[in-house]
Amino acid sequence: MKRLNLHGLLSLVIAAFMAILSGCSATGPIYQEVDSVPDGKALVYIYRPGKFMGGGVVFDVHAGNVEDDMAIVELRSGGYYPYFAQPGELQLWAKTESMTSLTLDINAGDRRYIKGTVGVGFLVGRPKLTEVDEQTGAREIKECVLLTPAED
User: Which CATH architecture does the domain made up of 2-146 adopt?
Assistant: First the structure.
């Protein structure tokens, strides 16, 4: 009889854990390629493939330096956001208990893919931003859903 109760309790804990994790995943419309980029802008896809490991960690991606920045998107597991950037140098960064940054030199009409991932951290997962080639980015982003822009 006690074994049955322990099994039921374990099932309840697992179900609660899965519900909590699913609340951290992205929800929204499935990926749809941007048809046109505004004149004089570049398209920077910021995305994060859906993964179980680190899936509960959510972090903001910012444009600009730390002192004068703009939050672009709250990057969740399984989500993407199309960001239209001015040509020139673009610095992207994210921070939890550690910081990651990436600087791009972009031209009008460029289409770039920035992949967000989460590594092991002491208390919270550590974000990482890396640029991937167009073939990899176009393949991986298809499984993602559209995120809403960050609220500043």
Answer: Sandwich (2.60)
